[in-house]
Amino acid sequence: MADLVIDERIKERLLRLLRENRQAHKIRSHGLSPRKKILLIGPPGTGKTMSALVLAGELGLPLFVVRMEGLMTRFIGETAAKLRVVFDAIQSTRGVYLFDEFDSIGAKRAYANDVGEVRRVLNSFLHFIETDESDSLLIAATNHPQLLDRALLRRFDDVLEYGLPEQSSVQATLKSKIGHFPCGRLSFKRLAQASAGLSLQFSSRVSELS
Ligand SMILES: Nc1ncnc2c1ncn2[C@@H]1O[C@H](COP(=O)(O)OP(=O)(O)O)[C@@H](O)[C@H]1O
Ligand SMILES: [Mg+2]
After folding, report:
1. Each residue's pLDDT tens digit, 153-196
2. Which of 83, 94, 109, 207 is buried deepest, with most CB atoms within 10 A?
3. Is 142 in the pocket of ligand 1 (CB under 6 A)?
4. Which residue from 63, 120, 57 is spatially nearest to 95, judged by alpha carbons?
């Protein structure tokens, strides 16, 4: 969790998710279930995939990434069958399952004309997520929440909205990533100002060079 630079409110909710899933047994023994289906919304490079990785690491569970776009096929019924395979795995192997690029359910070109097929896939996803009783964590991530309808949003236990970082976070991140290089009279404040509107993804590039 330490490397993740996020809004305090989001951090709070991720920590709560961790707490509830660590104590899943206790919660279930009271007839309740832990929060375990979450939707992450936000621009690219703001830490959605990274959050899934961190949650998996903290819970000591494997992370499985399901790219929704790769799941879609041209054949009616086949996509739903593939989804079933995924949800069977969710039942049998406890883990963190990230449905990445979730919006591509509605975005793929071949399907733009076939609203019926998109609807069917969405409906089977809704059905699967609704009936899921596994101990796995289900995380969907999207850059385009406007493509998702309200019915879908309601199926999640929590919806977290990621945003671009505050200037102070950018400054701190830059300092921790490249501060140990001899940078001369580099002003981190000015660098952070210049990066307004950018996500934190760029700073990881810098660290890859180091
Ligand atoms: N909030 C963040 N805190 C720390 N690093 C971040 C953050 N957001 C992005 N990064 C860096 O950018 C990379 C890409 O972020 P990623 O989680 O894949 O973004 P998203 O899934 O939201 O598009 C991460 O591996 C990390 O190095
Ligand atoms: Mg991502």
Report:
1. 888 999 999 998 888 888 888 888 887 888 777 788 888 888 88
2. 83
3. no
4. 63
